[in-house]
Amino acid sequence: MRIAVVTGTRAEYGLLAPIMHGIEDSPKLELQVLVTGSHLLNDFGLTVDEIAGDGFQISRQIPEISSASSGVEVARQVGAGMVAFADALVDLEPSAVLLLGDRYELFAAASAAFFLNIPIVHLHGGEITAGAFDDAIRHAISQLARLHAVAAPEYGERLVRAGAHPRSVHVVGGLGVDSIHRTDRLSRNDLELELGFQIRETLLLVTYHPVTLADHDTHTEIRSLLDALDAVPNATVVFTMPNTDPEHATIVDELEQAVSKRPDWHLFASLGSRKYISLLSLASAVVGNSSSGLMEAPTLGIPAVNVGPRQDGRLLAPSVICCGTGSGEIRKAIAQALSTEFVESIQGVSSPYGESGAVDRVLALLESTSFDTLDPRTYYDLPEKT
Q1: Does residue 216 sit within a domain?
Q2: Any bridge partners for residue 247, and if so which?
Q3: Which of 157, 211, 218, 358 could form a Cys-Cys staple with 178, CB 3.0–4.6 A?
């Protein structure tokens, strides 16, 4: 069975790579790799080279979807991407298309696969991110998918309430949790050598993506975040680039200016999965609005400061501190996250996204599914209460 895996961002690829290796190693499955989005952009690290460097043969590149500065650009790219994905899928003839998450690149791929009657396997559906248009995209992909592998029981239940048949929904756990357990982390010394700088005792790992749905002012938000980080004494601050959503350029410009003036602040287009997880394991706290602070950080017992509304609706571990986008609010939350009392209070915290094993469960699901006889997507009505 040919499984076409679509990847458009470095973060999503880090979660997909172990599954992709597993598909390659399976006697029942054959891997096809479709690469699009920020992977093909120099400004975001040209991470398509990392995919090839990991030994994967790339079946097709889809450059029609890249970065967007406005909603109309997103709409146009999704339309062009849908045409390109349709042509690629007709040529490749996969048994199924595997999609992870909620990006608009994946919406183009899902739409093309749906109209070609190719089954969609959707990973990490049923979640909520109320501050991003990704939220609606994720739910739309779930509606087109025939098979669902979700990170937590609550998310599976939400899909069933939305009309997915219970037989199509499988709780596998969080892929980010699995990635933590599978990664051979670099030592502090080796990591410092690879990064080219020394890591101070206080290390903040920061990612801030555009807020694409709620009322917001990106200039004010990112400057407030930088002001709050400036108030942390003697800290190494490592920023990773935002995603390619509209207004990402505003964030990048502010980050580049800030980093150029502070020797202990560093900005990376792409760290790669191993370096990122190694840094995460050493971090004093994760700051920003990336899902990594909610999914991966709790697995390592690392405090996270979740800034603003982008991730509203996700399951939260006790190690996550939510705050608004004002400088004072962020500063207060960071101080709490770094306090001895808070760090001691979250010792032994468990992640709501389960334990390791998600990759193996996804692979078992793929190997055991007869995609050529898989039932078409039909709406499931919940039984009436008596």
Answers
A1: yes
A2: none
A3: 358
CA-to-CA separations, 250 to 16, 40, 191, 221, in angstroms, rounded:
29, 20, 30, 10
Check residue 349 and give its pLDDT: 87
Closest listed residue to residue 94, CA positions, set 183, 182, 1:
1
Angstrom distance (rounded) from CA 121 to CA 106: 12
Three-class SS of residue 33? strand
Question: What are 170-223's pLDDT values in tens digits?
Answer: 999 999 888 888 889 999 999 999 999 999 999 999 999 988 776 778 999 999
**Residues 164 and 258 grouped into a single domain:** no
Q: Are 190 and 336 members of one domain?
A: yes
Give the domain CATH number at 323. 3.40.50.2000
Mean per-residue pLDDT, 76-85 = 96
Res. 243 pLDDT band, cuts 50 70 90 = confident
Token couple for 107 = 């919406």
Cα separation of 124 and 127, whole Å?
7
Is residue 163 within 8 Å of residue 143, measured between CB atoms?
Answer: yes
**Is 134 among the domain residues?**
yes
How far, in Å, CA of 255 to CA of 264, rounded?
13
Asked if residue 89 lies in contact with residue 116, where contact means CB atoms within 8 angstroms, the answer is yes
The tokens describing 13, both together, are 């690829």
DSSP secondary structure letter of residue 351: -
